[in-house]
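Record now logged for everyone:
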Amino acid sequence: MGVKMQLDIDYLRNRASNLNDDELFKIAFDNSHEYQPDAVQVAREELIKRGHVIRQVGNEIVNTRPALAEPEYKGVRGWLLLFCLGLTVFTPLLTIRSLAMACIKSLEYFDQFPGLLVITVIDTILSLGLIAFGFYAGVGLWGIRPGAVKMAKRYLLCILGYQAISAILTFMAGLLSGSTANLISQVALDVLRSVIYFAVWNSYLDKSKRVAATYHC
């Protein structure tokens, strides 16, 4: 019974985190009589996390919307705009160009290394999927949609996951053992770049005043 209740609360908290402030206010105050007490409580907790002040005065619960953030910290501009452009424009173009060049270079080796063709196809599918996810996350950030920041963070995690899979696939291609040293060096460099990219942008999404003001984090 206790486990089920905890699962229900976790589900409500996850749902609440994806709602905007107006939707949360309807649940927490305006239409609170239409919702279960747990849903009302979770909505109020989420509002408090976003900077709203909720206190009890006598028998009445009073809520106050936070003061508007300073204009210079709101909106998709600066580094946030660069990140959105990266997700929706730069990364897709660069990835497609890289895939095309890799495919052209690999064509002459497909007969010699049959596994290379299969791995190239798998890598291409994964890369295109990652491009689509990144584009979706970027559009969400650009449109200031509820849950956009969480979606962007999931995309960053997917980059690390893709890089791990890509590293494994690279050594499954059946290339000559003499090229192993070069492969290890290239894979290590790619992994390092992905880790740095993840660390920089994930930290930015967590600590940026613009992100907090724009998405009410």
Remarks:
- The chain has a mean pLDDT of 82.
